[in-house]
Design brief:
The complex is a heterodimer of chains A (385) and B (251).
Chain A (H helix, E strand, L loop, with lengths): L4 H14 L1 H35 L2 E4 L5 H9 L3 E4 L2 H9 L5 E6 L2 E5 L5 H28 L4 H5 L16 H36 L1 H7 L4 H37 L12 H26 L5 H24 L15 H10 L5 H25 L3 H4 L3
Parallel strand pairs in A: 1-2, 1-3
Antiparallel strand pairs in A: 3-4
Helix pairs in contact in A: 1-9, 2-7, 2-9, 7-9, 7-10, 7-11, 7-12, 9-10, 10-11, 10-12, 10-13, 11-12
Chain B lengths: L1 E13 L5 E14 L4 E5 L6 H8 L7 E6 L2 E2 L4 H5 L2 E5 L10 H11 L4 H14 L15 H13 L5 E5 L7 H16 L3 E6 L2 H7 L2 E6 L2 E6 L1 H8 L4 H14 L1
Helix pairs in contact in B: 3-4, 3-5, 5-6, 8-9
């Protein structure tokens, strides 16, 4: 018996490409990615470039000696001197970011960790006080005829970067989030065609028409699944292309990425595209499974809303807690694609993990399709009346 | 020939106490439709007509009993038999985003009609159902009557042997209804079998060779329109129906 999957697929794709809402979901969602990627880069850049000059207003409860005056100049400190009460008032009036109270030999930094300016200024205050401490230590050692470097620099600590990209916090952050946005775009854009092809078709009464044709329910499901997958892949690739473009311009525009190449290499790009395609198949199958149980378009949309969150939150949380990719993690859907992307992006390509992810997705998609085909034999699912 | 043998269809519904109860939407219905016959299935809303026709059309499975097409049970060769069926109901809607031409082209591909024969078939049916003027317009732009004609065209464009028509003229204007009724009569002349459900008694009287009056899932009377009128001593099927229903209620 001749399979009619290609005919159902053709019909479904024609509907998607002629439906303004489906097209809008497919194209408009990816268009948000440049705003997000460039926005994050711009925010980092702003923070980096403004912190040294901007967070420097400190109050002191004691007068500076000439050494401290020199250091204050060196560290670009905008300082005031007063008693504790007056300094507290100045802080409340936001004229200073924090103040330091000297009690005997203790210098107490008064700050508020919930106030971003205050929290940022702590670093400068610490730098200033440590520099003054070192000066006093050197002076004391010198007065006792001891070479200060023999005591203070008894060991030397140096740093060498093994992987330029991996060790750059901003590059890691922005590339990881760019991929997460791509995943979000695929998820959001898969829900509409999936709903339209199942609950929407049921609500409009065209599903009953389709059932009158000499087509096996398996062909109908696979045709629908492939059409949703194709639209999701288009969204995914469009999103990924726009993410790359955004990273390219962020690299050129923002000094935080100076002398770095934040764009993925060819191997990373190819593996990322494979992950995008795999994820598109997985999410399309799940969206169809959930939406096909609904009796109306609205009911399907409500049912799919939690799914869209479930799809990217586990991966996001795993990323936040720095979860290590093990063989087991590589098998868990919704976590494995983000984990493996992060590994590949930081130069750690583990072929076994990639194979496990592929296997896991194939098994899950097969199970989901089996479930939907079974559902399409149930009259409760097929007929709304 | 279509044979409907002891068809039963059970559904569940929730009663007033919130408990699931079972009921028969179709209860032990049997009849035959010979080649070239138009069989009318008549009854009020909720009588079980749509369920019965869905089972005959192979889009619903009966709880018990079977439907045979030329002695072959539909469940044994569902796909092959569906190629010979034209199924149309008030519930079978069509795709709005395409044109009638594209719709029929799609249907013909589902029925495995060779590409080179499709255009000829589409233009032929389009002429019969007077669709030439809107053949290339989007279905979303058509009137209700035009849409129903397109719906009829899409299910008969492949030249089927059997027509299963459920409330095919429901909600249509007189002209569109007449076009459909004339078409059914023409197909009868070619030896095609039609099972036609309606609650328009005059329509059934006009085109059906035999009718089955059903209520609450059961056949309550059958015969030619003439026989039924004679049995119930009425002058039209509408009065016959009311008389039978009234009688059954009195019982």
């Amino acid at each position: 018996m001749k399979s009619k999957i290609n005919l159902v697929l053709k019909k479904e794709l024609r509907e998607v490409f002629r439906d303004k809402k489906s097209l809008a979901m497919m194209v408009l969602v990816p268009l948000l990615i440049p705003f997000l990627v460039i926005g994050i880069s711009a925010l980092f850049n702003f923070e980096i470039n403004t912190s040294p000059d901007d967070f420097n207003k400190i109050g002191f409860s004691y007068e500076f000696d000439f050494v401290q005056k020199d250091m204050a100049k060196y560290y670009n400190l905008d300082y005031v001197v007063g008693n504790e009460k007056s300094l507290k008032r100045l802080y409340e009036q936001e004229k200073i970011d924090l103040y330091i109270i000297k009690k005997d030999n203790t210098y107490e930094i008064n700050y508020d960790e919930n106030n971003e300016r205050s929290a940022q200024t702590v670093y400068l205050a610490e730098k200033f006080l440590n520099a003054y401490k070192k000066y006093l230590q050197e002076d004391l050692l010198k007065n006792n005829n001891i070479e200060s470097s023999n005591v203070l620099d008894i060991i030397n600590i140096s740093y060498k970067t093994m992987n330029e990209k991996e060790n750059n916090f901003y590059v890691n952050y922005v590339t990881s989030y760019a991929f997460l946005f791509v995943i979000m775009a695929i998820t959001v854009s898969a829900t509409y065609p999936a709903t339209d092809a199942t609950a929407g078709e049921k609500e409009r009464g065209t599903l009953e028409t389709l059932l009158t044709f000499p087509i096996r329910s398996k062909d109908i499901i696979i045709g629908k699944f492939l059409s949703v997958s194709i639209t999701s892949i288009i969204t995914g690739l469009l999103s990924f292309g726009l993410a790359l473009l955004s990273l390219y311009y962020s690299n050129r525009w923002f000094p935080i990425y100076k002398d770095l190449n934040i764009l993925p290499n060819l191997t990373t790009t190819i593996i990322t595209i494979s992950i995008i395609i795999l994820y598109s198949f997985l999410i399309s199958g799940l969206c169809i499974a959930v939406a096909s149980r609904a009796k109306s378009f609205k009911e399907a949309q409500s049912a799919l809303t939690p799914l869209t969150f479930i799809c990217f939150f586990p991966g996001m949380i795993a990323d936040m807690v720095n979860l290590k990719t093990t063989n087991l993690v590589a098998l868990i859907p919704f976590i494995n694609h983000i984990q493996i992307y992060n590994d590949v992006n930081s130069g750690n390509i583990n072929i076994l993990h990639i194979i496990l992810m592929f296997t896991s997705v194939i098994i899950f998609v097969s199970l989901v399709l089996y479930y939907i085909i079974k559902q399409y034999k149930s009259e409760k699912i097929l007929f709304t009346d | 020939m279509i044979e409907v043998k002891k068809i039963k269809k059970q559904f569940e519904k929730v009663n007033k106490k919130g408990k699931n109860t079972k009921f028969y939407a179709v209860n032990n219905i049997s009849f035959e439709a010979n080649d070239g016959e138009i069989i009318g299935i008549l009854g009020p809303n909720g009588a079980g007509k749509t369920t019965l026709l869905r089972i005959i059309g192979g889009i619903m499975t009966p709880t018990s009993g079977e439907v045979l097409y030329n002695n072959t049970p539909i469940k044994e060769k569902e796909i092959e038999i569906k190629k010979e069926i034209a199924y149309l109901s008030g519930n079978t809607k069509i795709y709005n985003s395409i044109t009638p031409y594209e719709l029929m082209e799609m249907c013909l591909s589902f029925y495995e009609i060779p590409k080179e024969k499709r255009k000829e078939k589409i233009l032929k049916i389009s002429k019969i159902l007077e669709m030439d003027k809107f053949l290339y317009n989007r279905i979303s732009k058509l009137s209700t009557g035009q849409v129903q004609r397109v719906n009829l065209a899409r299910c008969m464009v492949h030249d089927p042997k059997y027509y299963i028509l459920d409330e095919a003229t429901s909600g249509l204007d007189i002209i569109s209804s007449q076009i459909i009724l004339d078409f059914i009569k023409e197909e009868k002349k070619k030896g095609k079998t039609t099972i036609y459900s309606t609650h328009y008694m005059e329509e059934a009287e006009n085109i059906c060779d035999r009718v089955y009056l059903i209520n609450e899932g059961k056949i309550i009377m059958s015969g030619t329109p003439k026989e039924i009128k004679k049995k119930t001593k009425t002058t039209n099927l509408r009065d016959s129906f009311f008389k039978i229903i009234g009688g059954s209620y009195e019982k």
